[in-house]
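#struct-help
A.M.: can someone run this one for me? Single chain, 356 residues.
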Amino acid sequence: MTKRIYLDHAATTPMRPEAVAAVIDGMARWANPSSPHAEGRAARRALEEARARIATALDWDGEVILTGGASEALAIALRGAGRYETIVTTVEHDAVFRVAEGNNRIHVGGDGLVDTRDRSWLLAALDPLEATDRFVIQSANSETGVLQPLDVIDARRREDWIGRRITLLADCSQSAGKLPLPPADLIVVSAHKLGGPPGIGALLVRDLSLLTPTGGQEQGYRGGTENLPAALGFAAALEAPRDWFDRAVALRRDLDAVVRDNGGEVIADASPRIATIAAYRLPGRSAAAQLMRLDSAGFAVSAGSACSSGTLKTSHVLGAMGIEAKAASEVIRVSFGWTTTADDIERFAAAWKAMA
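D.P.: on it. Structure tokens below:
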């Protein structure tokens, strides 16, 4: 049987061998880190060392709250909505909308980007919300790979661009461990998107006063026994070599060219995009038909974020970019990771040409 090629790394990426070894080691440290005896204290030391390693690997000098994943980290960051309102962009992950349902939305252009050239877009959302102090925005979009200008947004708010300072929450689920962290007060990170184990993530916090404690572990911000094996695997994955990312830049560029030259469309082609995610449209062929053909040919790709692509519903991200429903239904996502090779992309390019 021909080897299958996995190109759905934005959904989850295979665990790094370093992370697997660290998780196995952590399984032998079975004591509860909250227990007062010697075994518990040893587990606590290992947990805090893993936390420090995660912060160092991410070049973060604030607090690190370990969570069950990015969705939980977002929920913790947005907890206590009675104290404030939240602004989100229209292209955020569904996990954001589940927590911040009904809050004000900032629209993006056809390029998938918020407009930072003037302040009217943000002032319009802020005007009726005098208590607003949360602005949620992703670093890299999980469907298109578009990179939002968080450095510009941060500089604007520090210049008192809108008349008052707001808290910036950056969802870096797709970019952490691949690109430097953006400037923000709160940052969400996911381990399984960068080669760590599933079921663990982190909320990076500049100032704990921004959060509402509820009791329990993690300094009172998350209940539940700490997952020491996963924390060790998380740290090990972040410390693993990242030279593969430069390879992904070249591979994504080459595949973009193949799609363009063979009747396809690269979504947000002119926008800054992370090298690990690309969205391609093949006019006249539905995403469902493309996925079935590619799957039978040995390729694992998707039609959007894993949390919603199982239903093959129309992408809210593409809709927010002004792409009509029929065109949006013809878009698939190809995503790259540390295991992706030039041969993988050459074979996928040949399959794309045949399909086109």
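A.M.: thanks! The chain has a mean pLDDT of 89.
D.P.: also worth noting: The longest strand covers residues 63-67.
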